[in-house]
């Protein structure tokens, strides 16, 4: 099954060359199937003449009725929420239900007759189920109705309300006005809200200054300042800020990301049932990394492989990629990798565009690696939640780092060539052997999860042992220099080295927080983020203020470390042996870009958060 979607952005009139188009069709196919979710593509016989089972044929024949039933059930569920759990109409609704359907329906739904608006169960609201209903409704409708009936009106509104007015502005004035507008949004969003105990305007000013310093340093060290596409930079930084503003300053944004965090935590929690069966319930207590975190990783990887087999993951990645492709003027390959990185992680995200790796420009290689360094994957997200990190902060950090990685990479290493995938988004067909069915895919995923979990456990064991050895040698040597309180260690050296970085992020300047957070940043870069998160969840960091803990969580949430450089060079060199030299050349620059992308998210969190305590609860979610 292949997916090829050609999109011509409004900002360019160029199109792929005929030769490239022919090659694309040969390698990838030219059909615009929607990843197996399309009503036309979930049909019966494939082009190769494969026979479809009778059950699948019946499902395809009557799927419209199945989809209608699903939609009616969801609509009835949301309607019940509106009528029953709205405080004003609660008593009326309960009495109406009882009189119409009888008392038994209340008993079945476990709704007490004496319930009032004052004793509603906590956490019940209309936003989350409404968004879920909207998502399911849109997806079911698009399975049977062409998306052109939706996209054409949206495109018309976009062109009429935004594109045409922008084009009326003289070309020389567009960039300055766009930059001025972005700066105004950031300044107003940062300083307009009232001060709080953990976020005074002086703290926000420090975080804002840090963001400016990061951007200025990358502009000064850019490979080619004249080639910088400022639309990408402005849109990327503005999108990152607006996402943070939505999550940290609005109730709707907090509820949505909190709900996603709750779903992620709940999903990963089911791995505990399997662990309990293999061992016993006391063995799954959070203090045991091996029995609490590794099983969650294995289960999540298997679940992701199942989603990939069904085509849902590719569909989600393509939709995310379309947003960044249109808004940030990047190539299709860059958009796909950036959108995929938080889902599948470094290395695996590059494998999604495997046929194009040998043809990527140097700037695209830089961007592919930066996206991997700037975010974490879903599999390790399970580990960090199991270690007690805030799921909401981790998820929002990953989403914010997507546009940040695109902007920072293009600021450091702007495009000077013509990408092969300019003007189109393509997710090639996976050339590996496909699973026979869902069970086969899930089994393959469980085996892959065991390998990933084992690699993580072995890596942590070796890194922590090596770190202990080096600290022992440094401590022994430091005593001869009267450095014994505290002992000389890797953490202490890195703490002072990254002290200015922690200050620029807006960390609290009291209680020793600056040195502690700077140690975490250094450990994350030299060792890895697992070691840093393990330290953050330990007793040594229990005294961190809520603001400093939140900023540290954002700052450490990424694969930007030295060991990841070897992973990415190895993966990309295997996919494109002829480009291994170019990959190694841009790797260190991409590492710095990925680290700074993550740090910009931490700076913006420091600018916007007004109640850090609610974002730093252990596994924080509703």
Strand content: under 5%
Label the structural class: mainly alpha
Report the principal-axis shape.
globular
Number of E-state strands: 2
Q: What share of residues is helical?
A: 55-70%
Average pLDDT over all residues: 78
Gap between N and C termini: 39 Å
Can you summarize the main beta sheet? 2 strands, antiparallel
H-E order: EHHHHHHHHHHHHHHHHHHHHEHHHHHHHH
Identify the strand order in the major beta sheet: 1-2
Rg, Cα atoms, Å: 26 Å
* Uncertain residue segments: 1-50, 88-94, 97-101, 113-124
Secondary structure tally, helices: 28
Summarize the structure.
This protein is an all-alpha fold and 622 residues long. It has 28 helices and 2 strands. 67% of the residues lie in helices and 1% in strands.
Helices and strands, with pairings:
Elements: E1 3-6, H1 18-28, H2 54-61, H3 63-84, H4 90-101, H5 103-108, H6 127-144, H7 148-168, H8 171-191, H9 201-220, H10 230-249, H11 251-269, H12 271-278, H13 289-292, H14 294-310, H15 312-328, H16 332-344, H17 348-351, H18 362-374, H19 378-386, H20 391-412, E2 424-427, H21 438-479, H22 490-497, H23 499-505, H24 513-526, H25 529-536, H26 546-556, H27 562-575, H28 580-608
Antiparallel strand pairs: 1-2
Explain this structure.
The protein has 622 residues and is mainly α. The chain is 67% helix and 1% strand. The protein contains 28 helices and two strands. A two-stranded antiparallel sheet has the order 1-2. Helix 10 (230-249) crosses helix 11. It is globular, with a radius of gyration of 26 Å. 38% of the residues are buried. Mean pLDDT is 78; it is low at 1-50, 88-94, 97-101 and 113-124. Residues 22-36 have a biased composition (Basic and acidic residues). Keywords: Cell membrane, Membrane, Transmembrane, Transmembrane helix. GO terms for molecular function: nucleoside transmembrane transporter activity; symporter activity. Residues 209-279 form the Concentrative nucleoside transporter N-terminal domain. Residues 394-606 form the Concentrative nucleoside transporter C-terminal domain.
């Amino acid at each position: 099954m292949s997916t090829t979607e050609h999109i011509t952005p409004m900002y360019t009139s160029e199109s792929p060359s005929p030769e490239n188009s022919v090659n694309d069709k040969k390698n990838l196919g030219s059909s615009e199937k929607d990843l197996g979710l399309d009503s036309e593509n979930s049909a019966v016989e494939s082009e190769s003449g494969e026979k479809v089972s009778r059950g699948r044929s019946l499902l395809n024949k009557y799927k419209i009725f199945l989809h209608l039933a699903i939609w009616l059930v969801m609509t009835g569920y949301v309607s019940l929420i509106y009528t029953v759990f709205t405080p004003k109409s609660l008593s009326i609704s309960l009495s109406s239900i009882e009189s119409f359907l009888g008392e038994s329906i209340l008993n079945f739904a476990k709704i007490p007759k004496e319930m009032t608006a004052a004793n509603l169960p906590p956490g019940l609201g209309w936003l989350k189920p409404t968004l879920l209903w909207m998502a399911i409704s849109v997806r079911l409708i698009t399975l049977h109705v062409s998306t052109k009936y939706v996209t054409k009106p949206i495109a018309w509104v976009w062109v009429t309300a935004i594109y045409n007015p922008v084009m009326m502005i003289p070309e020389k004035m567009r960039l300055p006005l766009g930059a001025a507008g972005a700066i105004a949004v950031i300044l107003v969003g940062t300083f307009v809200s009232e001060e709080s105990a953990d976020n005074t305007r002086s703290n926000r000013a420090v975080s804002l200054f840090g963001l400016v310093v990061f951007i200025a340093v990358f502009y000064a060290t850019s490979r080619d300042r004249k080639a910088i596409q400022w639309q990408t930079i402005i849109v990327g930084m503005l999108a990152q800020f607006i996402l943070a503003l939505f999550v940290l300053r609005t109730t709707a944004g907090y509820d949505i990301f909190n709900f996603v965090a709750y779903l992620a935590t709940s999903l990963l929690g089911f791995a505990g049932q399997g662990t309990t069966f293999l061992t016993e319930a006391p063995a799954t207590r959070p203090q045991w990394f091996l029995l609490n975190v590794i099983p969650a990783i294995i289960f999540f990887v298997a679940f992701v492989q199942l989603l990939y087999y069904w085509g849902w993951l590719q569909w989600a990645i393509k939709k995310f990629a379309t947003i960044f492709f249109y808004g940030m003027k990047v190539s299709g390959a860059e958009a796909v990798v950036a959108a995929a990185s938080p889902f599948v992680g470094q290395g695996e995200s590059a494998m999604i565009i495997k046929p194009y790796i040998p043809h990527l420009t140097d700037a695209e290689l830089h961007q592919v690696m930066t996206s991997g360094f700037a975010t974490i994957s879903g599999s390790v997200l399970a580990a960090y939640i199991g270690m007690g990190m805030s799921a909401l902060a981790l998820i929002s950090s990953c989403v914010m780092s997507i546009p940040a990685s695109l902007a920072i990479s293009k600021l450091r290493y702007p495009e000077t060539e013509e990408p092969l995938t300019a003007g189109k988004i393509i997710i090639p067909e996976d050339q590996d052997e496909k699973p026979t069915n869902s069970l086969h895919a899930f089994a393959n995923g469980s085996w892959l999860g065991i390998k990933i979990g084992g690699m993580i456990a072995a890596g942590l064991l070796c890194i922590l042992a090596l770190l202990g050895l080096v600290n022992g040698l440094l401590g022994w040597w430091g005593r001869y220099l009267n450095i014994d309180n505290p002992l000389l260690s890797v953490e202490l050296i890195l703490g002072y080295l990254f002290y200015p970085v922690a200050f620029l992020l807006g960390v609290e300047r009291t209680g020793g927080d600056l040195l502690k957070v700077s140690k975490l940043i250094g450990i994350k870069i030299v060792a890895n983020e697992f070691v840093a998160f393990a330290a953050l969840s330990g007793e040594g960091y229990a005294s961190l203020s809520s603001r400093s803990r939140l900023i540290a969580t954002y700052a450490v949430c990424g694969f930007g470390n030295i060991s990841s450089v070897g992973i990415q060079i190895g993966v990309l060199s295997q996919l494109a042996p002829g480009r291994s030299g170019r990959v190694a050349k841009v790797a260190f620059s991409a590492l710095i870009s990925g680290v700074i992308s993550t740090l910009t998210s931490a700076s913006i969190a420091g600018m916007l958060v007004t109640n850090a305590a609610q974002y730093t609860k252990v596994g924080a979610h509703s």
